[in-house]
Amino acid sequence: MRDFSYLRATSADEARQAAVRSGAMLLAGGTTLLDLAKCGVADPEMVIDITHLSGLSEISVDGTGAAIGALARMSEVADHSAIRTDFPAVSESLLLAASAQLRNMATVGGNLLQRTRCPYFRDPAAFPACNKRNPGSGCSAIGGVTRNHAVLGVSEACIASYPGDLAVALVAFDATVDLGGHAVPVDDFFLVPGDRPDLETVLGPGEMILGISIPASAAARNSTYLKVRDRQSYEFAAASAAVGLELEADGKTIRDIRVALGGVATRPWRARAVEQALAGKVLDAETVEKASRLAMEGAVSHGANQYKIELAPRVVARAILKTGGLA
Amino acid sequence: MTIMEPHKHGDASDGVIGGRQSRFEGGMKITGAATYALEYPVEGLAHAVLVQSTVPAGRIVGIDASKALVAPGVLMVLTPDDDLGLTVATDWYGNRPENQAYLPLTHEVSFNGQTIAAVVAETREQAAEAARLIDVVYEETPSIAGLDDPNAGDGMLMENLSSAWGDAEAAFAAAPVKIEAEYTTPREYHVAMEPHGLTVKWEGDRLTVWEPSQWSHGMARTYAEWFGIPYENVRLVSPFIGGGFGSKAAALAYSALAAVAAKRLDRPVKLAVTRPQNFTSYGGRAATRQTIKLGATEDGVLQAIIHRGASETSTYGVWPEQTGAATPILYKVENFSSQHRVVPVNTVTPGALRGPGKNPSAYGIESAMEELAYKLGMDPLEIRLKNYADHDYQSGKPWSTRRLREALTEGADAFGWTRRSHAPRSMRDGKTLIGWGIGCGTFPVIQAPSEAMIRILGNGRVEVVSGAIDMGQGTYTILAQTAAEVFGVPVSQVDVRLGDSRLPGSAIAGGSMLAGSILGAVHKAATAARDELIGLALNDENSPLRDTGANTLTFDGGRISVPRGEGPSLTLPELMAALGRDEIEIRRNTLPDGASAQDHHLAWTTMAKVQGPTMGDYSMHSWCAHFVEVRVDEDFGTVRVSRMVSAFDCGRLYNPRLVESQWRGGIIMGIGQALLEEGLVDRRNGRTINNNVGDYLVPTNADIPHIQVISVGVPDFNASVLGGKGVGEVGIVGVAPAIANAVFHATGKRVRDLPITLEKLI
Q1: Interface contact B71, partner A, CB < 8 A
Q2: What is the pTM of this model?
Q3: Which of B305, B465, B508, B605 is least enclosed by beta carbons within 10 angstroms?
């Protein structure tokens, strides 16, 4: 690890001004930054510690929605009673992520920015080619071991999965990130790799996430996050789904449905085709299973990750049926 | 003292040996008071960091350390261009080539992740940064990524691992019912909680090494021979280690580099092997492949077993992961043939990982037996009992003890096996398919001569002193229990010193042999010390016990008295005071009488004196039967072990609490092996790409159900002086096939390739 300078920011403005400099990186919970520094991916010249900034850790929930400070810990948000009541999928996505120790350290702002677990991205010494680290150098994952790589939103330049869970729940419920001057829908915040996999979000130099807002909705209130993986705990998703569901007064016709996918795409993936296919339909297993297959529209596999194309629609269907009380 | 027959199966809870004491050192570990190798406060440390290859095969034609050498804090760089001046050490079996240089760094690259240089600096961070500045130019050559590489070839037949009797081919051909299947297991790793590393310090030509070790004496010998210094000049210190599982039984290339650097810099050096580097600094379990043919009668009597196995090894060393290790001894069979081959590939030489050989071997034969049972429409428990081996068909010798039948029947009772419905996919809970399976396991009883010292102090405390290792399995505790029993004192009155090569010689903490080996020496030394004390007490003119007319004394309840008689009764400190003694010290070993000094040295520093399971009149093994329930999500293919009962025959248990913990530990590793663990190797460059514990998955607590363990053993005094058989490794053996069998029962899908990950079931 190279020596770096350290700045303990006393205000968000100070942090943002410092962050404009090239080689500057923000430090919140540190669970991603330290990890990436150790494996030689992150090489900051300056670390700006924002953990002491006040006013960025609050969690408030009212009838209009939730406002969560960027520095709120994953565990604090997961355990917040109103979040659990009004946004169960959000709480569950956090509880099913990482380990208890990491959730106690990691902030939700940092969690959104967690970088991919693509092993080729994380091993610069053995795999110099990585368009995410070094645009134009190539993709080592394509042709390699791809079991955990994305099938949606991929390009010839990059097939790395977005690893997080929280963001999947957030895109399902039209959450926005507060960047100070302006708010951006989470769904617009993340970028597909295209030919610039190094650009993962719309964050510009000197911008930082100050908070997350999630509008209240009946669908968010009746929601779930289903995460499927080989290990029961502390593993990234083979496939996951955040689902919210609002039924008409008849108790069976779908008024509003939200579906987003994790573990299968290069960014948190809203499955609007599934939502559109189910809106206004009567909730039953056959309809749901058929519509869930639309989640894989445009999916492309690279060998060992082929199973995700089969698995993900099953996860979506189960999550919808579970939310609707049918599974 | 007599050792009483236990009242319960193998649970010798009638004496101090056999008590359920908690681990002596447990509190120290939990509170952080136990000092591990890299935590010793050594003054003036320099820090070494390894550089590893990024290509799988070829030659280093240029290695430029000029940038690293001028980086801040850098003290030294070692590369293959340096003559380190080391000499090859004796191998495990006591053989040593003459005057052959030992080269921990070579220009030849044999695998991706091979250590090719080391950088030493004032701080670890400086060394790590400088390590990135070393430019290496390789001349690459073609490589073989693994056992399944199309270019890997058939490898080399291991004649010494071939076994045959009867006419297996003819019997198989004639058998009315046959199965044939191929089973494969991937590269697996130890992933001990404590990564490897060491701190070394020279004082003149005397070397102190703080290094996690399963074998203080063997590793000390290696250092002495590398540097050409007397064995006595090396002190290897390892009182606590954070897991070894077979990986910490040898001084390795990085160990040599740290010691060389410390010598050249004339200051202590610490080298921490990073987690990714742990995946290639020493070998894990080799990938294996085996084909099994079973022939049987219509009513399920085995007629023939034909086994052909292979495991990968490196291009520069041979380590066979013996796929035929359990195959010949689990069942009664008159016609048998087994062969094992090793296939060189570009990997670090594989090594011993809990239950080597027996583990993949049991995966094969125990899967095949259930395949045969289903083909016959027979209950998997019934087929095992029907083909029960009444003696060892391979060696022709009787079992010393073999209560595998009891393990099967009592395990089945505890599990509720009779409630099983035979057909695959016949048990479910909504979308969850439920399946039950059995897997048997075995591990040989081996032992080596050992030595121990007992000191009785004036204050009445008893010290047990040995260079043996406690790697979490309970050596401290059972040694204290043994001495406490001999002296009739509470275990709290006993102190145990371990983990230092300067202390009396011991068998390796490996091969499940330490307890059986070292307890013999401790018991012998303690008994001798007690006899000496009795002699003094009966004869010393100042002893109150002198004129009692007794010819021996009893040690019980902390008091020494005349047997069955009236008379004085003294505590140990009272007797020592009366005798005017500050200390009685006795050292004993279990070598044959008249053993030479060379025999002594070989006994604790090599494997030359190890006694195998069939070297005497009997065939001696531990046995187990695992019963598993899995729940498989029908849509997702995720497998969860929901219930387990495992019954063991390990003879007498010296401390049932610690034994149960070892069994469960082995079982948990078996669950990981069955469902999660797999080194993912990139075919293009032989790199293990999941070389970290975030991506190489081992079970979490959430993956582990309640595991009921049952002892069905009886004391086996042929197997060891105190009646125990090995407990450390047998627990993992048979778990993977039990789970694979349960998955088949649940889903109707037979997965013959570990681990059983979800994509194999959807």
Answers
A1: no
A2: 0.97
A3: B465
